[in-house]
Design brief:
Elements (H helix, E strand, L loop, with lengths): L9 H5 L19 E7 L6 H12 L3 H14 L1 E8 H17 L5 E6 L1
Antiparallel strand pairs: 1-2, 1-3
Helix pairs in contact: 2-3
GO molecular function: peptidase activity
Keywords: Hydrolase, Protease
Subunit structure: Binds to the N-terminal domain of the chaperone ClpA.
Length: 113
Amino acid sequence: MRPRCAGDDDSDRAGDGQLGIATKTKAKPKKPSQYKVLMLNDDYTPMEFVVMVLKRFFRMDLEQATRVMLHVHQRGVGVCGIFPYEVAETKVNQVMDFARQNQHPLQCTLEKA
């Protein structure tokens, strides 16, 4: 038995003499939900304009933009890219505004990926 000194706390003697290390579990930040930006076909917007939009707003090269444009033309809808919600929403708005400014009825929308 060890001698007791003033200021000793009984709780120290109740343990096994080992110090514990408190650890904090960090919650991993969730990845933001991803959204597909979809382009819809119409009978009026020129194919060249669609290719220009894909290059300008989605940074596609000519070959990829042409491939996506033909997919949209043949199937009625195509994916321009997958982005976090805010980015997808911005791209949809940019495309729609640009199409309106150029008097084209091109439509873009987004849906959860």
